[in-house]
């Protein structure tokens, strides 16, 4: 990722945390209060806040309300997984308590909730902060407090490349890697394409758009129109009307769920414009498509890395069976066919493996474990997708597969593409 885009990602963090850091400059770092209580040897003196021989306390920050509230159900998938594991004896004999806070997709609120989780709830780790703006707003604070922030629910490429934040790691494929998948697909199938782009005017939207444009460099494909929107906008109908006038034959839809549905619906209503519609993975859930009407989203293309719970090919899959049974028992109000719930299950399963791999039952032990994943398999991920990290690589997943919407569900096509091997690493 180039330096200018990296600075863009960090601006939200600087703005949202300035007041917080001033207020806490003279305070004792509360995450350090319990240093010196780890057992023995190499673990002695490390932080054990939030973990005992019998319990692990984790916190998560999600938009349970506000313009991105569709993502809130991810927390139900996570909670169901941990309750399922607790029912079977926990992780190395420890039961997991998962505390969920709502930030409404507002960075200042995310800062407030991060402080609450660390200073009042005294969590072991802030597992899952959702959204690029909210994650950027809190990562300075959490890294200064030396509190693990593993597997954030955002694909911004900065999470895996910034050496100043070793306590933060990504999970899902970063937006630059995802953009490369779409660029490769167009270069292979529509080498003279004219592309119109709708994107969210923040670090999330700009990261994916920038990665897409970089991946197209030197090709015959041109971005002929771009329109942005703010998360506070009531709709994107005006932007879609403008993009339609470009007569582009491809529409790249870089949106969060609310606006993803609006863009898909607007595309269906513009009868004289029929572009190939590519929607980014974060708005590809059936929960986003269903309100539009499945008949109106036929042929839409996206990419994924985990199993679609609505796809019958996974009906007899052992992990999918466990997921459906656990949701029925521990989160009966959560739709098992909703991909966001499956996402939550998959990332919680990853956290399970990281916790189990800790050499020390400490915050430092977790930090090191998430930076040392080697071909880790998670049952909810697609065949061929494994997790790998290293000291200089905090992108656990960089393999994705294309899918096309047919009938009432997504259908995978092509082969999984490991973007690390295909394009090289994403760098800072």
Tally of strands: 11
% residues in beta strands: 5-15%
Radius of gyration: 21 Å
Number of helices, where a helix is a run of at least 4 consecutive DSSP H or I residues: 13
Major β-sheet profile: 4 strands, parallel
Number of domain units? 2
Q: Detail the poorly predicted runs.
A: 1-9, 11-37
The third-level CATH topology of the largest domain is Rossmann fold
CATH class group of the largest domain: Alpha Beta
Summing up helix and strand content along with how strands pair, one would put the structural category as alpha/beta
- How are the strands of the biggest sheet laid out side by side? 5-4-6-7
CATH superfamily of the largest domain: Response regulator
CATH architecture of the largest domain: 3-Layer(aba) Sandwich
Order of helices and strands: HEHEHEHHEHEHEHEHEHHHEEEH
Report what the structure shows.
- The protein has 428 residues and is α/β, with parallel strands linked by helices.
- It folds into two domains: 3-173 and 320-397, Response regulator (Rossmann fold); 175-304 and 401-423, Response regulator (Rossmann fold), CATH 3.40.50.2300.
- It is built from 13 helices and eleven strands.
- It has helices spanning 3-24, 74-87, 107-120, 132-144, 175-189, 203-216, 237-244, 257-269, 286-289, 318-330, 339-356, 363-370, 419-423; strands spanning 55-62, 95-102, 125-129, 194-200, 222-229, 250-254, 276-279, 301-304, 399-406, 409-412, 417-418.
- The strands form three sheets. The protein has a four-stranded parallel sheet with strand order 5-4-6-7, with helices on both faces. Strands 8, 9, 10 and 11 form a four-stranded antiparallel sheet that branches.
- Helix 8 links the parallel strand 6 and strand 7.
- Helix 1 packs antiparallel against helix 6 (203-216), helix 2 packs across helix 10 (318-330) and helix 3 packs parallel to helix 4.
- The protein is globular.
- 54% of the residues are buried.
- Pfam families: Peripla_BP_6.
- Residues 1-27 form the signal peptide.
- It comes from Streptomyces luteolifulvus.
- InterPro entries: Leu-bd (IPR028081), Peripla_BP_I (IPR028082).
């Amino acid at each position: 990722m180039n330096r200018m885009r990296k600075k863009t990602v960090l601006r939200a963090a600087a703005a949202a945390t300035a007041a917080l850091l001033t207020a806490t400059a003279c305070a004792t770092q509360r995450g350090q209060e319990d240093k010196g209580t780890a057992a023995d040897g190499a673990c002695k003196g490390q932080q054990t806040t939030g973990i005992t021989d019998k319990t692990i306390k984790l916190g998560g920050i999600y938009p349970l309300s506000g313009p991105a509230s569709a993502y809130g159900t991810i927390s139900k998938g996570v909670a169901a997984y941990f309750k399922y594991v607790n029912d079977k004896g926990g992780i190395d004999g420890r039961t997991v308590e998962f505390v969920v806070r709502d930030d409404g997709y507002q960075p200042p609120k995310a800062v407030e909730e991060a402080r609450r989780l660390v200073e009042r709830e005294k969590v072991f780790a802030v597992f899952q902060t959702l959204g690029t703006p909210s994650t950027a707003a809190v990562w300075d604070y959490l890294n200064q407090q030396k509190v693990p922030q593993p597997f954030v629910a955002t694909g911004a490429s900065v999470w895996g490349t910034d050496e100043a934040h070793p306590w933060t790691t990504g999970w899902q494929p970063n937006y630059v890697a995802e953009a490369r998948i779409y660029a490769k697909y167009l270069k292979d199938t529509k080498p003279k394409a004219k592309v119109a782009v709708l994107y969210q005017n923040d670090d999330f939207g700009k990261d994916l758009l920038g990665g897409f444009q970089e991946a197209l460099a030197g090709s015959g494909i041109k971005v002929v129109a771009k329109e942005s929107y703010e998360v506070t906008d009531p709709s994107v109908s005006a932007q879609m009307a403008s993009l339609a006038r470009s007569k582009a034959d491809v529409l790249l839809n870089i949106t969060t769920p609310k606006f993803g549905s609006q863009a898909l619906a607007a595309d269906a209503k513009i009868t004289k414009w029929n572009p190939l519609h590519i929607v980014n993975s974060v708005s590809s859930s059936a929960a986003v498509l269903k309100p539009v009407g499945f008949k109106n989203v036929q042929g839409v293309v996206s990419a994924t890395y985990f199993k679609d719970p609505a796809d019958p090919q996974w009906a007899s899959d052992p992990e999918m069976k466990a997921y459906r049974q656990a949701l029925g028992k521990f989160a009966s109000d959560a739709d098992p066919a909703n991909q966001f719930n499956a996402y939550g299950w998959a990332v919680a399963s990853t956290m399970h493996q990281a916790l189990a791999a800790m050499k020390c039952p400490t915050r430092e032990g977790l930090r090191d474990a998430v930076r040392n994943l080697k071909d880790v398999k998670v049952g909810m991920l697609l065949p061929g997708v494994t997790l790998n990290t290293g000291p200089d690589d905090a992108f656990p997943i960089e393999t994705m597969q294309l899918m096309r919407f047919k009938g009432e569900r997504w259908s995978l096509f092509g082969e999984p593409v490991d973007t690390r091997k295909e394009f090289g690493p994403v760098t800072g």
